[in-house]
């Protein structure tokens, strides 16, 4: 078994396999019908598709990123016996997987959104989260917009707020579209794709050398009405799903590093039964459709890591067991599943299982990646939208425990916080009376949760003395002292 420290780091040198032209129908020929696309990269984003000869370099102008993994490392490693896709299927090109031992590496697709400029200054400095994370762990946040923001009295943060974008680029090395890649945004009318918002996030990430998590290709929620209320035959639905998956994945091939291919497929009942009524795909096409969705996505981007993703899988529980069994079975059958994502939406009103790490570890033992994909820790709030000091301290400890688990599990390469400012987080909107779930106060001041994440990263990488002695961390040392942490 290799360790985090001897894993190969990547320099994101990928080979151009012919960038797709912007605005052209993706995967013509591979999809069962012409897909109309709209929403080409907007000039406002300050970026454009880059020439093929600049292929693959994350030309973000940041200081010091050489040797950072452009992608989570899953190459060149000795792996477990013959899963079609787990770690250890190194193909020698520093990026791919699942290509079969000893075979010639196929050319890799160049992200078509590679920018010419636009990087935020001063990103990933010493006193940030991404700046102190180990090379093989991406620290992420969301591109906030869509979903509940659409009903709010402010415009979508990501496209409208430069301060928000700057903050994200400075602190984080990965970004997830909060809503813009969900079906209701991407395919608002049947066969009509709108990528405008999603493209801008991808261009931003590329400009700033950030990884991207794609969320989500199939789900029971946030589907457009035409789909949920339509009257389709099985064959038609299958065609609709295949077209969507191929169109979206191929558009972002080489850009999106990890995809949530199937989101929240099991319920919260005792048996963690499969969502065979509320999930249109499973209801109409049977759970076997999951094999196809992963396979289609893999065919369109063989280098992307393909994940299941769910909430309430924060320990050894029934729902997590169902994923373990399903993924084990799919791996046996050669289905290209590469990862298990624990959303990790926690509440101080509920307990927290001490088997979080053990759960991630068993997926790691299968040879697949794990990720903390949407962490936030909420609790009952007062009139100032704050948790009690005790709950704040408890929330900080949960952030630290989850991060430490990810650091200690070999192929946990991504840790994403779901939200930046509490006033804009999905939490108050979804769980009335609860809040204070993110790591920043309303003015981007750091909370104890931010500082404990930073301390955990520093102590993991450089030891306790670096944390105690380095003047860069003075602010957070003070915040943690004041919180008694
Ligand atoms: C949430 C978004 O944050 C909201 O804006 C939206 O209104 C609803 O969805 N699990 C998921 C995410 O997989 O997509 C959800 O995001 C939060 C729970």
What does this structure look like?
The protein is of the alpha/beta class and 485 residues long. Helices cover 31% and strands 12% of the residues. The protein has helices at 157-160, 162-171, 183-186, 196-207, 225-228, 234-251, 280-285, 289-300, 318-332, 356-365, 389-408, 426-430, 448-462, 464-469, 474-482; strands at residues 36-38, 138-143, 174-177, 192-194, 211-215, 258-263, 305-310, 339-342, 345-347, 369-380, 412-417, 434-435. The strands form two sheets. It has an eight-stranded parallel β-barrel, surrounded by five helices. Strands 1-4 form a two-stranded parallel sheet. Helix 11 links the parallel strand 10 (369-380) and strand 11 (412-417). The longest helix has 20 residues, at 389-408. It is globular. The chain starts with 35 loop residues before the first strand and ends with a helix. Residues 1-102 have low confidence and may be disordered. Bound molecules: (3S,4R)-3-hydroxy-2-oxopiperidin-4-yl beta-D-xylopyranoside. (3S,4R)-3-hydroxy-2-oxopiperidin-4-yl beta-D-xylopyranoside (XIL) is lined by residues 147-148, 178-179, 263, 311, 343, 374, 426.
- Report the C-alpha radius of gyration, rounded: 21 Å
* Average pLDDT reading: 83
Enumerate the distinct ligands: (3S,4R)-3-hydroxy-2-oxopiperidin-4-yl beta-D-xylopyranoside
Proportion of residues in β-strands:
5-15%
Query: Gap between N and C termini, in Å?
Result: 34 Å
What's the total number of strands?
12
SSE string, helix = H, strand = E? EEHHEHEHEHHEHHEHEEHEHEHEHHH
In terms of structural class, how would the helical and strand content be classed?
alpha/beta
Helical segment count? 15
Shape: globular
Could you give a short account of the major beta sheet? 8 strands, parallel, barrel
Instruction: Give the strand order, joined by hyphens, for the main sheet.
Output: 2-3-5-6-7-8-10-11
- pLDDT < 50 runs, ≥5 residues: 1-102
**Portion of residues in helices?**
25-40%
